[in-house]
Structures are given as structure tokens and as C-alpha cells.
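Trying the structure run again after the queue cleared.
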Amino acid sequence: QVQLVESGGGLVQPGGSLRLSCAASGFFFSTYWMNWVRQAPGKGLEWVSTSGASAYYADSVKGRFTISRDNAKNTLYLQMNSLKPEDTAVYYCAKGGYSFGDGMDNWGKGTLVTVSS
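Done. C-alpha cells:
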């Protein structure tokens, strides 16, 4: 049974940093592309970043966010720097497929990030 559990969200001031974690279990983590997706209050889902053989980022976070993974710990990370109020959202970890661009078939419950002074 696939499980994805996000952690690390919270309240941070503009310009601050947070690191999100996603603990994965129930599948062979290292062989799958993994994603971060967010949903701002009252808005739809927005893809943030993907990790696999390479890393990809949405233009809105490029240069500020860094995705990484520790395959030995089955954990995905998102380092978020220079946070802006518009980064406020629930951040979800989502399991991809064997190739970049495959759909996301399992999601965590999310962790809330609030950027506010």
C-alpha cells in the first residue's frame, strides 16, 4: 500500500525558508519520478517540481525552490527559499511513474505553508 506523508509546513515570514519532507512507503521509491504540487486557497492545483533523472521546476519557483531526494531513506524534499506570500498553499507530494510526464497516481494529505508577516 502506497503511503506518502508530508511534513515541515508552517508559518514563515516573507523572505524566509522552509524545508518540506515527504516520507514514502509501499513502493520502490528510487525507481519512480516524484512530484510536489500545491494548491493555494481558493485556487486549483499547481505543479511545483519533479524529481527523477533530472529536476524540473515551475517558472514561479525556479531559482528559489530546490527538490531533492534521499533514496536510502525513501524521502523526498523541497527546500523553499525567498518565500513570498503567493507561495502560501497546501503542498502535496505525489508519486509519478517510471518516466517524466507520467501521471501522478498517489498523493499525500498535504502540509500547509503560510507566508505572512
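The radius of gyration is 13 Å. Worth checking whether this holds up in the mutant runs.
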